[in-house]
């Protein structure tokens, strides 16, 4: 079966196609928020981290680490969702190798979240300990 990739009409560069690409990306993000519980959790955690960083007056140099960690987790969750969807299309019935692929992607997202939590600990714990010792 020979199927040409769907192009969404993106053949030439122009402002219309440029802005349409943002619409497609926004639709993907909205789908993840509606359908993926882990993405909703990570967005909630992101809001909490941002509020805490503002409240504690985190310096710009440490904000960069927080933004990197947040971005890494959200991208890992997005890739996990995309790979899961592709695997469901390719092999809708249960298959042990599909399980392996999904488990590995979920593991990658978990590793990103653990790394982000570690960065959060390095940024926030010393500040909180300092405030508690006052």
Brief rundown of the structure:
Helices cover 81% and strands 0% of the residues. It has 134 residues and is mainly alpha-helical. Helix 1 (15-35) crosses helix 2.
Can you tell me about this structure?
By secondary structure, this protein is mainly α. It has one domain (15-132): Helix Hairpins, CATH 1.10.287. Helices cover 81% and strands 0% of the residues. It has 4 helices and no strands. It has helices at residues 15-35, 37-56, 60-90, 96-132. Helix 1 (15-35) crosses helix 2 and helix 2 (37-56) runs antiparallel to helix 3 (60-90). The longest helix is centred in the C-terminal third of the chain and has 37 residues, at 96-132. It is flat, with a radius of gyration of 19 Å.
């Amino acid at each position: 079966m020979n199927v040409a990739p769907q192009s969404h009409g993106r053949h030439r560069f122009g402002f219309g196609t440029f802005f349409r690409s943002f619409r497609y990306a926004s639709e993907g993000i909205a789908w993840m928020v509606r359908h993926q519980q882990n993405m909703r959790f990570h967005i909630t955690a992101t809001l909490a981290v941002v509020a805490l960083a503002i409240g504690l007056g985190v310096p710009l140099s440490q904000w960069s680490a927080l933004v990197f960690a947040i971005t890494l987790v959200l991208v890992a969750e997005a890739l996990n969702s995309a790979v899961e969807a592709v695997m469901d299309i390719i092999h809708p019935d249960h298959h042990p190798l599909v399980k392996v692929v999904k488990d590995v992607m979920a593991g990658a997202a978990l590793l990103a979240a653990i790394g982000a939590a570690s960065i959060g600990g390095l940024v926030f714990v010393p500040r909180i300990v300092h405030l508690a010792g006052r």
